[in-house]
Amino acid sequence: MKNRLKVLRAERDWTQAQLASALDVSRQTINAIEKGKFDPSLPLAFKTARLFEMAIEDIFQDED
Amino acid sequence: MTKTEHEKTNQYNTRNCQNTRNLKNWTLSWVISMAIAAFAPKFLWDYNTIFTAIAVVINLGIGFGMLMSNRRYLRGLDEMQQKIMFDAMGLTLGVGLVVGLSYELLEDIKLITFQPEIAHLVVIMCLTYLGGIVAGNRKFQ
Question: Model ipTM?
């Protein structure tokens, strides 16, 4: 699954640690999601969408 | 997000540190109570049945507390860290079962002359768990 997390974070000038704190996860998890190595659960994806005030599909896209 | 907001919301690391510290204390207590239950009957109270039974009950009680602390620790992790831990546990269970049974068999079929010790299996399981956690962290780096 692809995602725009890194771009959206950079647009807001947030660090990985700040985003991790806001989503209540570890910085390593944010790093893994940004690199596409770990796909977040649906609740975490919803939480991310709420934080960025965007729709989930505008942040996460299926690679097919 | 301001720095203050970030610090205020940085609850994951704080919670994780507290749970880790808690688990460390329970584990240390369990090891000490295990050492007391194992060695004190011989060196301190000459196999007095009541004292030994009390030491074993205390060891079991602290062991249960350690399990609950470990449960709290695992539940406090985020979903990726939990996945790493559960993968490592699954690997450890599989390796423990396969190696444990094969190790036991070695003596039955006379390939080794010494009695298999449970402590050897525990060491193998600890090393497997440690290796599983390291591999899991590297996988998601």
Answer: 0.92
